Every structure is written in structure tokens, then in C-alpha cells.
Amino acid sequence: MTNIEKLKKELDEIKARNKRVEADKAWETSWTRKLIILVLTYFVIVIFFLIAKLPEPFTNAVVPSVAFVLSTLTVPLFKKWWLKNFRK
């Protein structure tokens, strides 16, 4: 394999990796992912509340589910702030 062929292969591998990274980033920031997290969190909390025999599990599971999603939405803001102020 010549040097040019090796470089072309390396470049193709880098392009493929970049596509995977871009897709991962798109997923991480997508509203679909956030809604899935909200729904799954809600159902896990409802199940826990049912097992624990707490009152009104379907209603009371809303607050912790929404709080969890809101906490995940604020993480990027703190990340930007941290990168700006503490990363050298």
C-alpha cells in the first residue's frame, strides 16, 4: 500500500469517525432524547411510588421527573461557564 493510499484510508476513517461523533452530538442535544428521558424517568418513579404504596403515584411522579429533566437541561449551561472560566 502506497503512502497516498494509506493517507486516503486514514482520511476516510477520520471522516467516518467525525460522522459518528456528529450523530452522537445530535442525539445528545435532541428533544427526542430529552422527552424519552422524561417519560422513562416518570414511569420508573411511578413504579417506585406504587411499590412503596405512596399516595397518588401518577400525579406525584410528575415533579421529580420534570426536576430531573430540568437538571439535565442546565448542565450544558454550567459546562459552558466552567469551560470559559476554568479551562486553561
Report on this model:
This protein has helices spanning 3-28, 31-51, 57-60, 62-86. With 88 residues, it is mainly alpha-helical. It has a domain at 26-86.
Distinctive features:
88 residues, mainly alpha, 4 helices, 86% helix
Topology diagram in text:
Layout: H1 3-28, H2 31-51, H3 57-60, H4 62-86
Class by SSE composition: mainly alpha
* Sheet of most strands: none
Radius of gyration: 21 Å
Count of distinct strands: 0
Q: Give the count of helical stretches.
A: 4
Distance between termini?
Answer: 41 Å
**What fraction strand?**
under 5%
Order of helices and strands: HHHH
Tell me briefly what this model is.
This protein has 88 residues and is mostly helical. It is built from four helices and no strands.
